[in-house]
Amino acid sequence: MKNSIDWGKLALTIVMGALGFLFLLPFLWMISASFKPEVDVFKYPIEWIPQNWQAYQNYYNVWFGDHPFAAYYWNTIKVSVMTTILSVTISSMAAYAFAHVQFKGRDFMFVIVLMTFMIPMYSIVVPQFMIFRWLNLFDSHLGLVLLGSFSALGTFMLRQFFMGIHKEYLEAARIDGAGQYKMFASIAIPLVRPALATYAILRFIWTWNDYANPLIFLRSRHLETIQLGIQKFASESGAFYSLIMAGTVSAIVPLIIIFILGQKQVIEGIALGGVKG
């Protein structure tokens, strides 16, 4: 078979690679600036590889200075992990019910769930604030976890994957005497595992990057998350961009690690979404 070069695909690959590199430049500059002394941050032309390394001092001031970054990290990890586990569990159970459980008013209830996704978050902040104060959940990590435990988008997304499961699998299990919980846990969940991993990664990233809810529902400093810590650190270190960049890199690294570890599942989830059962 004669080999030929698809010049169109080659050109598209080169263009997309160049665009991807351009999108990475701000992040690369941020990493470079976090390793520099303050006087070299805005040196022109840009020194992408610092000549004077000051990484130890910058990151030491961030982690062991006046701001308890270790506490911020622990608080954010705790809230993000708990929220992700609870949200994936609730959304997957609701999605399976809307996809494969027959009950009266199912489609109407699903429309109601989708309608909640259309409500702007800030329009319900005051009622949420009042309810959480009444339930003694204000200024607690449990309150933040419960705020993110339900997701209309997650329910909708996972429902589409559950609908792609062949009904013959579930019918065969039902004939063998399996109940809805058995079919959900032993058959449906393994078949949509890439989708669950995709949503879990997205949920973790959304929670990790959440700034508004911790700002509104937390008051105690020892409960603050990394986003509040970064904001306070930046406001108090506004003249020291090398320290701000070191703190920002510290906040972003866990997200990069999570995505690298889960990128295979994300790709499988996207591919699974393009195949209808």
Write the layout of secondary structure elements.
Elements: H1 7-34, H2 55-64, H3 69-100, H4 106-117, H5 125-134, H6 141-147, H7 152-163, H8 167-175, H9 180-191, H10 193-208, H11 212-217, H12 226-236, H13 241-273
Helix pairs in contact: 1-13, 2-13, 3-6, 3-7, 3-10, 3-12, 4-7, 7-10, 8-9, 10-13, 12-13
Q: Which percent bin holds the helix content?
A: over 70%
Mean pLDDT: 82
Report the uncertain regions.
none
Measured by DSSP, the beta-strand proportion falls in under 5%
Shape: globular
Judged by helices, strands and strand pairing, the structural class is mainly alpha
C-alpha end-to-end distance: 35 Å
Say how many strands there are: 0
Query: What order do the helices and strands follow?
Result: HHHHHHHHHHHHH
Largest sheet: none
- The number of helices is 13
Backbone CA Rg: 24 Å
